[in-house]
Structure formats: C-alpha cells, structure tokens
Amino acid sequence: MKHFYILLLSLSIGFSWASTWTAQNSGTSNHLRSIHMLDANTGFIAGTGGTILKTTNGGSSWTSQTSGTSNTLRSIHML
Prior knowledge:
By secondary structure, this protein is of the alpha+beta class.
C-alpha cells in the first residue's frame, strides 16, 4: 500500500509539472529537433532544412536565423 501512495504522489507531481507547458507557434512547418534556452527569455531551436529559430521573449515569438545549410540540424547548444 505504501508503494501505491508513492506512485500516486509521483504521478500527481509529474502531471502538474507537465501542465505548465503551453503550445507556441514557431512560424515554420519544418520538424523542430532541439531547443536550448540561455535564460527564461532567450533561446534557440534547430530542425530540418537547416532551420534555426531564436526567441527573446520566452517563446512568444520566433525569428528565423541563417544557418547556411539545408541539412537537418539535430541538436543545438550554446556556450
């Protein structure tokens, strides 16, 4: 019975955390593969067709960045 309560508590915490995500419009139909947020407002997304998008307002809007390639970008990281 103790394990049941731990499982129930874990699930309720997980579901409440997941509900804080909100869908945003990226402005592209390309498949997006990776995101890296530098802080709460600034972040980058990479995806198919050389897609790189940047946000400076926490994902409310995204601007296209030049990648110089049409290859799929599978990951993006900033230093």
